[in-house]
Amino acid sequence: MTRVLIADDHGLIRAGLKATLEKEPGITICAEASDGQETLERIEATKPEIVILDVTMPRLGGFEVLEQIRESHPRIKVILLSIHDDAPLVQSAVALGAKGFILKTGSITDVNAGVKAVAAGDTYFSPAISRETVAHLYAPAAGEKNPLLSLSNREREVLHMIAEGSSAKQIADTLRLSTKTVEAHRTSLMRKLKVRKATELVRYALRHGLIEI
User: Could you say which of 81, 108, 138 is where a domain stops?
Assistant: First the structure.
């Protein structure tokens, strides 16, 4: 049996995914999680083989969770869920170790197909993701760089919290940093993402599907 953990902050989505996957022979749902931190805790407790992980979640975003899974549990395979299909987002997911990328706007059968493919050692992308985007993952244009890939794990955490409306002090308290360190990360984010104002970081995160409205 392939053990699957479903991580999404929407209960109805988790229920729908669980219902369709449990109909498939050879697949069992070992746990569910509603935010990033809970996902990591459930992984430690249940040791799934595949994690279906929403990109946009509270406490820790999908990319931060994905990076921690890659570092602590390299054998676990991750399939990301998102409503966005822009090339930089998909490229970032693959670069961070995701084995699949499924669009929430697609068919529920995409999830079944994705889990089967990833369990068999393949990768899977929703059919709705353009061929150009998939080709771009493995053959980016010469000299082209995805700014999201230049961010450190800590910078992604800070970006996620800024985008959710947390103040520098709140971020510092949560991540156990000084406010000056948080401000330094914010300055670095603005430089790397080529934005001039801190408020533009929120728009950047929304545009690239890192948070939801």
Answer: 138
